[in-house]
Amino acid sequence: MASNSDKNMRAEGIAAAAATAAKDGGLPPVHLWNPPFCGDLDMEIRADGSWFYEGTPIGRPAMVRLFSTILKREGDRYFLVTPAEKVGIRVVDAPFLAVDADISRDRVTFTTNVGDQVTADADHPIIMRGNGVQPRPYVMVRAGLEALIDRKTFYRLAAAANEGPEGRIGLHSAGQFFALES
Asked: What sequence ranges are listed for the domain DUF1285 (predicted)?
């Protein structure tokens, strides 16, 4: 069993590798990396978008942003990935939270809690789950990683919605129609 010191060294090593990979300002090419699995890390992304390490909130937004850039999803599991290692983490709902949206007549661009911006389109759909009483709206951010659209942003989307095909209420963005009802 790994000691706390070993676990902290692993987390620090992953953070250092992520920082190196992200130096150009873009996202690291995690889709190209297939390193060996090195075990699970006691890290969790909670339903409200907050990140915890060993039960303690990660309070540095820059560190959360850094970890978010090396997040990868494989099936139902989530991993932090570097060229040299892959460690499992827990995600309660979605790894990101859409906290704002720029809504225009033909485009909806979301901003996530980690600073990603994504325009709803064919590759980044708005996905409705839940039901009419408790809708659960998401937007695809990248490579299987979704953002739960927070309540205030969803209310803004609903206020801007119009009737679309088949009488469904929703929004147009980037040439696509996204229904806002399940």
From this structure: 28-94, 95-180
